[in-house]
Design goal:
Elements (H helix, E strand, L loop, with lengths): L1 E4 L3 H17 L10 H15 L3 E8 L2 E9 L2 E4 L5 E4 L2 E7 L7 H11 L5 E3 L6 H9 L3 E2 L11 E7 L13 E4 H4 L1 H12 L6 H8 L9 E5 L5 E10 L4 E9 L8 H15 L4 E7 L5 H9 L3 E5 L3 E3 L5
Parallel strand pairs: 6-7, 13-14
Antiparallel strand pairs: 1-2, 2-3, 3-6, 4-5, 7-16, 8-16, 9-14, 9-15, 10-11, 11-12, 12-13
Helix pairs in contact: 1-2, 2-7
């Protein structure tokens, strides 16, 4: 059974359910944009402004979702500095349950048909040898932008939550939750860290409406002057007792003061108290993108898996 529509909140819950089932048995095969938390974050922050450019297809077996594809087609986005960016290619997030691996060919056929005539990118897990062979058979090659020191590929890091050290903030700084700080401050914290950003108050309200969002697991660091200097959201997968940081960011004027490190430690202790035993966080993995990776390594994370960015040029069939 298949159907084709725009991506809805109900679809995301089904996709998250598949992420949970794959995480339980083959966590290394969860694609970078197909994790429990990433799905909620991406849909929540973008569906109001970008949802019209999203297409999805779902594959079921025995009434259970076993594969899905989420194609983001060319569109225009407005950023916090007033600039407009035209995205001329297509991007696919997808997941196939390993017991139904052969469906990856159907996902590819659907994507090629949905995004025909434009450049197409996709990031399967580097651990998914079968999928990589099938994408190659359909004309997808390693994305040249992912090569070299400035490569764009993502690595997933993990650690267990035993013996998380006590966080220490500089004098005058304090931890806040998003519920305490309020919507405007929570949005500004993200925009400051990721400027220019497409994040808006409307996007934040979408994030809050996703099923797994918890305001007590959305934490910030407040500076003495009231600026929300650092922020992160944690997404708790109760079924697998895992939690995921996404996103993590610090205002440029407050970096290298230990704020993000303290926030991550504080967050992991909160995640443990909420029932998680394992934590994950993603970052760019190429040698030139070492700052975030070193931060995560400093609080006990280690590389678990990575993605393999692929591209099919618009001239290809």
């Amino acid at each position: 059974m298949t159907n084709v529509e725009l991506v809805t909140a109900a679809d995301v819950r089904l996709m998250q359910g598949l992420a949970q089932r794959v995480t339980a048995t083959r966590p290394e095969l969860v694609n970078s944009d197909a994790s429990f938390g990433e799905l909620a974050w991406n849909w929540g922050k973008g569906h109001a402004g970008e949802g019209g450019s999203w297409r999805r297809r779902l594959w079921f077996s025995g009434g259970e979702l076993v594969a899905w594809g989420w194609a983001q087609l060319p569109h225009r986005v407005r950023r916090s500095d007033g600039s407009v960016k035209n995205l001329t290619g297509a991007y696919l997030a997808y997941q196939v349950h390993p017991d139904h691996a052969g469906l990856v060919d159907e996902v590819i056929h659907w994507y090629d048909g949905t995004a025909a005539g434009v450049e197409r990118t996709v990031v399967p897990s580097a651990a998914d040898g079968f999928a990589l062979k099938r994408w190659a058979a359909h004309g997808y090659e390693t994305d040249p932008d992912s090569l070299g020191d400035a490569g764009s590929w993502t690595q997933l890091n993990e650690r267990d939550l035993t013996e998380v050290e006590q966080p220490v903030l500089p004098d005058g700084f304090r931890f806040r939750t998003a519920d305490e700080a309020g919507p405007k401050a929570a949005v500004q914290a993200h925009v400051d860290a990721w400027a220019p950003s497409t994040y808006t108050l409307e996007g934040y309200q979408g994030v809050r409406r996703t099923a797994p969002y918890r305001g007590d697991l959305h934490i910030l660091v407040e500076a003495p002057d009231g600026t929300m200097a650092s922020s992160t959201i944690m997404w708790l997968d109760e079924a697998n007792r895992t939690a995921e940081f996404e996103p993590v960011g610090t205002h440029p004027d407050y970096r290298r003061r230990g704020l993000a490190r303290a926030m991550l430690l504080h967050g992991m202790r909160l995640a443990w108290a909420a029932g998680a035993t394992r934590m994950t966080v993603a970052c760019l993995g190429a040698p030139g993108h070492h700052q975030a990776r070193e931060l995560y390594y400093s609080v006990g994370f280690r590389k678990f898996t990575r993605d393999a960015p692929l591209v099919k040029e618009r001239t290809a069939g």
